[in-house]
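Following up on my earlier message about 5,10-Methenyltetrahydrofolate. Here are the inputs again, as you asked, copied directly from the submission form:
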Amino acid sequence: MASSIINGKEIGQEIRKSVAERVAQLKEKGVTPGLAVILVGDNPASQTYVRNKQKSCEAIGIFSELVKLPQEVSEQELLEQIRSLNNRNDIHGILVQLPLPKHIDEDKVIATISPEKDVDGFSPVSVGKMMLGQDTYLPCTPFGVMKLLEYSGIDVAGKHAVVVGRSHIVGKPMGQLLLQKDATVTYTHSKTPDLPSITKQADIIVAAVGRPNFITKEHVKPGAVVIDVGINRDENNKLIGDVNFAEVEPIASHITPVPGGVGPMTITMLLYNTVQSAENTLLQDK
Ligand SMILES: Nc1nc(=O)c2c([nH]1)NC[C@@H]1CN(c3ccc(C(=O)N[C@@H](CCC(=O)O)C(=O)O)cc3)C=[N+]21
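Thanks, got it. Here's what our run produced:
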């Protein structure tokens, strides 16, 4: 059974088209959605991601502003930059590119972003609302995975979903969103004994461990859906996922490739959240 390869680039493009239409409607009302991206230091990977985010904004008419700060910037200065962006009417979304240098308290930085502008969905307020099923900005990567499943016609209700990884930005919220759609969710992680015995029971596996080719055919039940959130780089700087694609593809029913799977969806949902935030300001003005 060869699997159907889920094309995140194509699904992302389709969603971006409808987001672009909403941007056009906002502009008719005199509002240009604006995203501020804060980049600290000069990590080459972060620079590439940030450039991709800016290009994607431009392509659909979202204004994007890059705030570049040196590696040695003080936490105080970074917090002041965020507060000033919180107060700007032309900025509807604020994203602080992670990871941050070690001398800066990431939790404090994220908590300083106004929840109204937290288009990453990382702040304590956003996370709390998500847990309660309230209206909020959903974290872009798990949100993107839910859209991939939906657009691929995969109904998660009643399915057993196994999430591998428990990070604040992917694993934990991923399980929540699946649970909200009536999946039965199992969380697994680096301290889970005999992982294959658990993942073998999954109808849907979401791999978000950050280890290249970690999920092999021994982990996968034939016919399972396999979503690869991994973005590892090999020695030649080539992008590789957490799933051994060559091994797993023949037995899965659906699988996401890396690149071209979850990655493009993360950016798509960032654009989506930013436009949502701009629309929300219009509702508040009324
Ligand atoms: N505050 C914050 N928010 C983030 O959302 C955030 C972050 N910090 N820090 C870093 C990670 C990583 N991330 C990616 C987004 C898109 C691709 C992506 O588009 N990948 C393409 C390929 C890109 C390439 O070839 O390099 C793909 O998978 O097809 C990858 C990774 C967002 N992150």
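One observation from looking it over: The two ends are 55 Å apart (CA to CA). Hope that helps, and feel free to reply on this thread.
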